[in-house]
């Protein structure tokens, strides 16, 4: 999602190469994101010459921004975030 949040679209091949995951794992992840309505895919061609391109949907953008905000709150030690006692 971080890649798609910073680009208008990304091909399956680009995502696979940059994330360094197997085609099977990427396919499963993208299917899950598409089922959730967070990404939309476009297929061009068929077989070995075909390609799939993904774009983040508005719902995906909202969910991604909310996720990033929650992570920032944890990292910043915002009220209600998980805290750990100092070591030592």
List the helices and strands and how they pair.
Blueprint: H1 2-5, E1 10-11, H2 12-19, H3 23-35, E2 39-44, E3 51-56, H4 58-76
Antiparallel strand pairs: 1-3, 2-3
What do you see in this structure?
With 88 residues, the chain is α+β, with helices and mostly antiparallel strands. Helices cover 50% and strands 16% of the residues. The protein has a 3-stranded antiparallel beta sheet with strand order 1-3-2. A hairpin with a 6-residue loop joins strand 2 (39-44) and strand 3 (51-56). The radius of gyration is 17 Å and the shape is elongated. The N and C termini lie far apart (38 Å). The mean pLDDT is 89.
Characteristic terms for this protein:
4 helices, 88 residues, three-stranded antiparallel beta sheet
Helix content: 40-55%
Major beta sheet, strand line-up: 1-3-2
Query: How is the main sheet built?
Result: 3 strands, antiparallel
Number of helices: 4
Question: How would you concisely characterize the structure shown here?
Answer:
By secondary structure, the chain is an alpha+beta fold. It is about 50% helix and about 15% strand.
